[in-house]
Amino acid sequence: MKKPPAYAVASVDHALRLATILQLEGSLSVADAAQRLGVARSTAHRLLAMLVYRDFAVQDDTKRYRPGPVLELAAHSHSMVSRLRQAALPHLFRLVDTLGESVNLTVRTGNTARFVACAECRQPLRVGSREGMVFPAHRTTAGLLLLAELGDMELEALYAGDRKPEAPAMDELRRELAKVRRNGFAVNQGRSERGVVAVGVPVRSGGAAIAGVSVSMPSMRYDRRRLRPIVATLTSAVASLEEDLRRL
User: Which part of the chain is the HTH iclR-type domain (predicted)?
Assistant: First the structure.
């Protein structure tokens, strides 16, 4: 379970979030930055100026900020993840409008899962953006969906020799993944963050699961009777996303 540091430094967190947004989205204005962080424009301007100073950002002729030399290679990559993120964002925002909760797009790399896009809801009590964050795959909804695609030998090889405290108990993980395969969706109750429930379905390309789309909410708003309607809504949105991916 990932916890924020006991003495979090808000300015550092804001700067890192802006660097992540630039890396993933490629362009940002001062007004955009202020709105995304929920800070004054003067604060956003100072944060962006520091990113420019440290070569994480550059300012173009239109006064927008773009990835600097430190981020440029990743930001301008035309990888599958970049195309997937671009195609997914409109669907994520529509899901937020429909479900009223924050929605994520997550991919797996080895035994970790990275949140590559987030559409945050506007409810006062909500699950905040995890965009750019990395968690152990078995602790996340999409991670479980993507691990469920692996055969027994692949799963064993993935975790062979992993002695970290957060390493999964393999028998328990196999049972959980078998349940995910049967259901076609995953439910995560407090695995990555206490008090948060997430429900997700896989995104497929060429028959293989390449990502997961999940909706996250405070556990106090989760009602098990809504599970099937939530899964149906996610499945419909993902089918539209997969159709868009086929056109890329």
Answer: 9-69
Domain-ending residue, one of 57, 75, 93: 75
Is 60 exceeded by the pLDDT of residue 7? no
Q: Which domain holds residue 28?
A: 10-75
In whole angstroms, what is the distance from residue 12 CA to residue 205 CA?
Answer: 37
Q: Read off the pLDDT of each residue in 161-170 and give the average, rounded to a whole number.
A: 80
Distance CA(32)–CA(87), nearest Å, equals 20
Q: Indicate if the pLDDT at residue 76 is higher than 90.
A: no
Nearest to 81 by CA among 185, 226, 210, 203: 210
Residue 1: pLDDT band with limits 50, 70, 90: low
Amino acid at 47: L
Q: What angle do CA 118, 120, 124 make, to 5 degrees?
A: 155
231 with 156, same domain: the answer is: yes
Q: Is residue 155 part of a domain?
A: yes
pTM for the structure as a whole: 0.73
Q: Taking Cα atoms as reference points, which of 56, 51, 54 lies closest to residue 68?
A: 56
Location of structure tokens 């996250």: 216
CATH of the domain at 46: 1.10.10.10
